Amino acid sequence: MKQYLLFFLLFLYGCNPIRKDKDLKWKTIEIGDFLFDFPSDFKLVKDKGVDSNVGRVVGDSLVFNYDFGYYSSQLTKTPKDCLDSNLITYHAGEKFTKPGIIYDKNNWPKVRLLKLRQATIHDSTLGQGCDYVAICEYKKQKFDYPIFLAVETKNKIFIIDTLDNIYRKIVYPQKYEPNNVIGVHVHKLTGYNQNINNYLGLTLTAATVSREQQELVLQIIGTMRAKPVN
C-alpha cells in the first residue's frame, strides 16, 4: 500500500481558497448547518426537494445551487477515488471471468494488487493513453492492468482538507473556460448516520462565465464555517 499511497497524496491540497475582497460589501447567508459570506446583492431562494434541502443563492449575474442532505453530491471523483484498490482488483478480475457462469462476491476471480505506478510511454501497447498501471496477481500469475482516469477528473484541481472538524472538498477546473462549474462539498465529521451510511452534507456549486466570477466563487467558498450551535 505504501508504494502507491504517494500517488494519492499528490492530489490532496491543504490550502485555503482566495481570501474575500475587502472592497465588497458582504453579508452572511445560512445554508443548512453552514454559513457563507456573499456580496450584498445575493439572496437565498429555497426550492422544494424530495429528500434534501435544496435551493439557490442568486446574485445580479451569478447563481449558486445548493443541496443539503444525506444524498448531496460529493462532486467529481478525485484520482484517489479512481485508484481505490478494491475497484482496481474487481475490474481486473473481469478478464478472468468465463461465459455461462453467474458470478457473485464468493466466486468472483480473486485478484491481488501488488503495486501501482504512473504510466509511461512504454505502456502504449498495454493501454493507449492509460494514466496508471496496476501490477496485479491472479493465481500466482502477475499481469499489468491499465487504468484510465476520466477526463473530468484529470482536468480538475482538488482541495481536500478539514476545518474545525468539517470535511471540505473544493473542485475547480485547471484551465479557465466559460461556464466552468466550481463547487464545494462539506460535512461535519460528527454527522455520520449509520442507518443511511452517509454524512449529512452540503454541496454548493456555481457555473461561472468570467475569470472574475471564478475568483469570486472561490472567495465565497473560502468563507465557509459551521453555524453556531445554540
Q: What report would you give on this structure?
A:
With 230 residues, the chain is an alpha+beta fold. The chain is built from 5 helices and 13 strands. The longest helix is centred in the C-terminal third of the chain and has 11 residues, at 211-221. The relative contact order is 0.20. It comes from Solitalea canadensis (strain ATCC 29591 / DSM 3403 / JCM 21819 / LMG 8368 / NBRC 15130 / NCIMB 12057 / USAM 9D) (Flexibacter canadensis). This is Lipoprotein.
Offer a quick outline of the entry.
By secondary structure, the protein is of the alpha+beta class. It has five helices and 13 strands.
Task: Please tell me the CATH architecture of the largest domain by its name.
Answer: 3-Layer(aba) Sandwich
Count of strand segments:
13
Question: What count of structural domains?
Answer: 2
String of helices and strands:
HEEEEEHHEEEHEEEEHE
Q: Largest sheet, if any?
A: 7 strands, antiparallel
What would you call the structural class? alpha+beta
Mean pLDDT: 88
Radius of gyration (CA) equals 21 Å
Proportion of β residues? 35-45%
Spatial order of the strands in the main sheet? Answer: 3-4-5-12-11-10-9
The CATH topology of the largest domain is what? Protein Transport Mog1p, Chain A
Task: Output the CATH class name of the largest domain.
Answer: Alpha Beta
